[in-house]
Amino acid sequence: xxxxxxxxxxxxxxxxxxxxxxxxxxxxxxxxxxxxxxxxxxxxxxxxxxxxxxxxxxxxxxxxxxxxxxxxxxxxxxxxxxxxxxxxxxxxxxxxxxxxxxxxxxxxxxxxxxxxxxxxxxxxxxxxxxxxxxxxxxxxxxxxxxxxxxxxxxxxxxxxxxxxxxxxxxxxxxxxxxxxxxxxxxx
Length: 187
Fold this sequence. Notes:
This protein is α+β, with helices and mostly antiparallel strands. The protein contains three helices and nine strands. The chain folds into two domains: 2-97, Ribosome hibernation promotion factor-like (Double Stranded RNA Binding Domain, 2-Layer Sandwich); 107-117 and 132-185, Sigma 54 modulation/S30EA ribosomal protein, C-terminal domain (SHC Adaptor Protein). 29% of the residues lie in helices and 39% in strands. The longest helix is centred in the middle third of the chain and has 26 residues, at 72-97. One of its GO terms (molecular function) is ribosomal small subunit binding.
């Protein structure tokens, strides 16, 4: 597994890098069969250290965790515990409810845009009704079953996930509803 361990405006030493590789590697090896890479970023937020970790699995799923603490090792340990909990849940769901995926998830390329929010001032009418594009990026749309899409959305902690339904070969959306349930759009 490839590791990318870095700090945002802070210096991280060899001892911390070794600690991260050994502890995170142990957790990932316990619950994931073929992890591809892990990214761990340390930063400061006022008086606390922040640790953000992302682990990409060969199945195409991504697990993310984030923790805060007053000491850098404690921040990583909290993040590592959250990662272990996510991977344990992921493995249990695969074991209990889903078939084993023999091939990696197929990813389709797509454009992703960030649009400027509308101004709160209504004094000036906009010249056109076209939104202003702030940023343009490329994103990947995974080919998943509905159950895997819900699992990926929960692992990422995102409110919505667009995916290609591998059973029907069309684009679908799963999202978290205000009542806490999961919604599924199948056009």
